[in-house]
Amino acid sequence: MFNEVFGCKCIGIEQQEDVAQLSRKVLKKLNLDDDIKIVIGNENTIADLDYDILMVAAFAEPKERVFSNIWDVVSEKTPVLYRTYTGMRAILYSPVTEKDTRGFHKEVMLLPTGNTNNTSVLIRKIT
Fold first, then answer.
1. Distance of CA 21 to the CA centre of its chain
2. What would be the CATH architecture of the domain defined by 52-127?
3. Which of 1, 30, 64, 87 is the most buried (most CB within 10 A)?
4. Distances 40 to 44, 67, 115 between C-alpha atoms, Å
5. Which residues 6+ apart lie within 8 Å of 49 measured at CB?
């Protein structure tokens, strides 16, 4: 999405090697492999990467640990965008809670419209 809309280079972090390989194959078929890279790791991997913005997937787990580790690494200037579920979808999928994002300030929350299922939330670290 970021690559398509904003033309920026992207790095996806995947914990499972087989899923990472599949993601790379899909990106190659779509001719996106020059702009989107997949690395093996978890949220701690971001400490070794160069980035301007972070996006956390709705399925990232365990959420409290993920956001705690992100807080340890990012600066107050780094925008962190996460996707979560609200409404009836929150019954099926674990949503991000206020407890998960302790130490962050919520700047914008975009509720889903149309065929979109995820709520997008922009947060920044506070100290």
1. 19
2. 3-Layer(aba) Sandwich (3.40)
3. 64
4. 11, 18, 31
5. 11, 39
3-state secondary structure of 113: coil
pLDDT tens digits along 34-57:
999 999 999 999 999 998 889 999
CA of 5: how far to CAs of 9, 33, 51, 77, 85, in Å? 11, 16, 17, 22, 22
Identify the residue whose tokens are 């701690």.
Answer: 44
d(Cα 21, Cα 40) in Å, to the nearest integer?
Answer: 10
Three-state secondary structure along 40-108? Answer: ECCHHHHHHCCCCCEEECCCCCCHHHHHHHHHHHCCCCCCEEEEECCCCHHHHCCCCCCCCCCCEEEEE
CA 127 – CA 122 distance, rounded (Å)? 17
69-86, pLDDT tens digit by residue? Answer: 999 999 999 999 999 988
| H/E stretch holding 27 | helix 17-29
Global pTM reads: 0.86
Q: Which tokens belong to 65?
A: 């640990």
